[in-house]
Each structure stands twice: as structure tokens, then as C-alpha cells.
Amino acid sequence: MDLGKGLKMEIEGGCYCGALRFKAEGDSLFKGQCHCRECQYISGGGPNFVMGLPETGFQYTTGAPKLFQRPDLDNPVTREFCGDCGTHILTRSPGMPGAVILKVGTLDDPNLYGGPQMAIYTIDKQSFHMIPEGVASFERVPGA
């Protein structure tokens, strides 16, 4: 199954108000749409379109993000967002060390994403969420 691995990315992006800007480069690790309940909060109700990139190739070029971790979880992800406009830029997951999970809507050219190769956390999928035909689907994540 092709999960988008090996696609060399060189991208720029930022938040809605421009207070945060970033550059990212490296081979994509995956391209997906996440249906988890947490992403539904962030996206406004739909799945969140994301791509995994190497942490070493990611840097903020303008501003510094606010960070959030849920204190009630044993091993929470870290969410990075703009403290001014609230745009969610990326997630760092303990389950994916060395990677950033970048939100596609923050790219200057979202067309670089090209579409998901997988839909994850479909266990939380809402009846109005659509998964494109031919996209691999997982109740949680591949291998879980």
C-alpha cells in the first residue's frame, strides 16, 4: 500500500493572521485524513487532513506557537497553534517520535497535499464524513 512515503516535500505555510510562518522539507511520511474526535473539535466537525513530515526538516520562520497538551491523558499529543488567531498548525505525537503532523489547511499551496492515502480513526467517523473511494481505512492507525 502506498502511503505517500518518499514524496520529497518543500513547503511553506502559516496561520490565518500571519503571526506564525513555517518551512518544511523532507520526504513525506504519510498523507491522511483523521476522523478522531479530537480532530473533529479542531476542524469544526469534519476530518482533519494531515501529512507527516520529518521533525528535522520543520522550522518556524516567524513567531512561536502556543502549545497544548490535555492534562487528563497519560500520553497526550502536543498541539501547536497560533496564540493570536487560533489556527492549529501541527501535532507532535509520542507515537511518532521524530515527526510532525502538519495540518494541510496551513500550507500556502494546499494542492501540494494531493489527497489522502489513508483514513485513520474511522471508529470516530461521523455519518456525514466522506472517505474517497480507494483510500485505505483504519479504525485506529495501521498496525494497531
Describe this structure in words.
This protein is mostly beta strands and 144 residues long. It has one domain (8-126): Metal Binding Protein, Guanine Nucleotide Exchange Factor, Chain A (Beta Complex), CATH 2.170.150. It is 5% helix and 37% strand. The protein has one helix and eleven strands, in the order E-E-E-H-E-E-E-E-E-E-E-E. The strands form two sheets. An eight-stranded mixed β-sheet has the order 6-7-8-9-4-3-10-11. A three-stranded antiparallel β-sheet has the order 1-2-5, with no helix packed on it. The radius of gyration is 14 Å and the shape is globular.
Key terms:
37% strand; 144 residues; three-stranded antiparallel β-sheet; single chain; mainly beta; Metal Binding Protein, Guanine Nucleotide Exchange Factor, Chain A; eight-stranded mixed β-sheet; globular; 1 helix
Q: Kindly, what is the distance between the CA atoms of the first and last residues, rounded to a whole number of angstroms?
A: 16 Å
Put simply, the count of helices is 1
Under the CATH scheme, which architecture would be assigned? Beta Complex
Q: What's the quaternary structure here?
A: single chain
